[in-house]
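One such shown below:
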Amino acid sequence: MRIEAYTQVQQIYNTSKADKSRKSVKANASEADQLEISSVGRDYQIAKQAVAAAADVREDVTAPLRKSIQAGTYEVSVEKFADKLLNRLEEMR
């Protein structure tokens, strides 16, 4: 018979026995769950609510563009587009 195995079994048995007694003590105690949110968490909640309440599309920006596209008067500067495209490429590197 290996003594180490017996010792390990005995330790497991004692641990489970102690856990049962702890559980019975906890069952008798009446504790209430509490939730505490940090100030950063509160700020995050406020910001999230503000974003959720905001409109998805800013009509004051998109309405003039929509009108000029529908009228056929919207023009894109090739130079400005190329500059923005190259700047974006540089940012990605």
About this structure: The chain has a mean pLDDT of 80.
